[in-house]
Structures are given as structure tokens and as C-alpha cells.
Design brief:
The protein has a 5-stranded mixed β-sheet with strand order 3-2-1-13-14. Strands 4-5-6-12-7 form a 5-stranded mixed β-sheet, with helices on one face. It has a two-stranded antiparallel sheet with strand order 8-11. Helix content is 28%, strand content 26%. The chain has a single domain, classed as Purple Acid Phosphatase, chain A, domain 2 (4-Layer Sandwich). With 234 residues, it is α/β, with parallel strands linked by helices. This is Metallophosphatase.
Length: 234
Amino acid sequence: MNWAILSGIEGNLTAYEAVLQDIQDQAVTDLYILGDVVGLQGDNEAIIQRLQSPRAGELEPQVCVGWWEEQCFSLYGVSGLQDAPELMAKVGGDGVKTFWKSISRESVRWLRSQHFGFHEQDCLLIHGSTVSYADELTPDTPAIELCDRLIRADANHLFCGRSGLTFECSVTPVALRSTVTTLDGVQAPQDCGKTPRQVIGVGSVGRSPGQATYTLFSPENGQLAFRSVNYGQP
């Protein structure tokens, strides 16, 4: 079993095709895409159609939603805050109009049907974290915060795509206990164990022109590899 884990295509079909070509040589059994399949640049309709219709011999991509998808839902009034204030703050009025015009209502419905994340074996694959789609974990995130995200996820390996970076952060709790407060009061503390855990940034396929990055992972033996693929300008 060998997983290819992608994120951040951001409408860049050329980059996605280059990664698919590279994947063919990696004995991959499962293909995960952790959000941000659409973006401000590129051809959003083309990438959505490509994801919906894999070619003969290609893996069926398993897709979850990311930051850009959530902005799309907000614009179309199907979830979140109306009028996408986060998007407005990031790209301005002209950018919002461009993004709005780049995605059809039919494509929005398809994106809305995708997953929030995937929990497979002892792994969580998600765009941000269980806290939020916008939760951006990086190598500079404090260790206690990484522990919190791993415990919330009930996972030993947390794969995330929000930052667009490829990184591996290992956390080994020495003594870690959690408590839950309910309406009935504080519940008995729980020992969260001392098993080494990892937060892994899976890279970005389409964010950096000319270079796509993604992650390979074998859940059977824990082997992890970051791949970098050079491609022509989209």
C-alpha cells in the first residue's frame, strides 16, 4: 500500500498532469487531494472536470475541501459567512469577481459534496486540522499546539496541506493528559500516551510556477517521501 497525498492544485491543470505522470512510476495505490483544488489562477472548471473523470488506468482521486473551496461556498451562500470576507481581505474586489466567474454553480455543488478529511488507520488527512480548514500548521508551530491537533484528530500521523509546505514535525509526549469539561463538570483526566506522533505538510501542486511538490506515504511501514516535479509554465 502506497499513498500519494496532494494539495494546492489551485486550478493549475499543467502541474496536476505532471504530478499524475510522476505518480505512475511510484506504485501508488491510493490518491488523496487535501483541498485547494481551485484557486484564483488557472482553469478551475478544467481541473474539476479532470478530477471528476480520471482516465483509464488512473486512480480515482479522493478529495477533501480546503480554504479556496470554503471561500467558494461562502460566495455562493451555501455555507460559512456570506460574501466571503476572508477572500475579500486576501484578493480584493477584483479578485473576488474573477474567482466568482471561474466556477459554475454545478461545480460548486460537486465541490460541496466532497469530504472534510479522511481518517485512515492511524492517520488523518485534512486540509487544515480538525479545528478549522484555515488552521495553518508549519514547522514553526509550537509543539504544544501540534500535540493538541494530533490529540483532537486521534491520529499518530496528521497530513495537512494548508501551508503549501513540505515538512515533517515529530512530537514525542513525555507526560500528557487531557481533561474534558461537560455540563456535568470536569471529567476524569485521560492519559494520551507517549507514542511518537507526526504532523506532515504535504506540499503544493500548483502554487509555485514550474515546480509541484507532493508526498508519498506507506501506512504499512511508515515510510515517507517528498517528491518535487518540474513542469512547463501553465
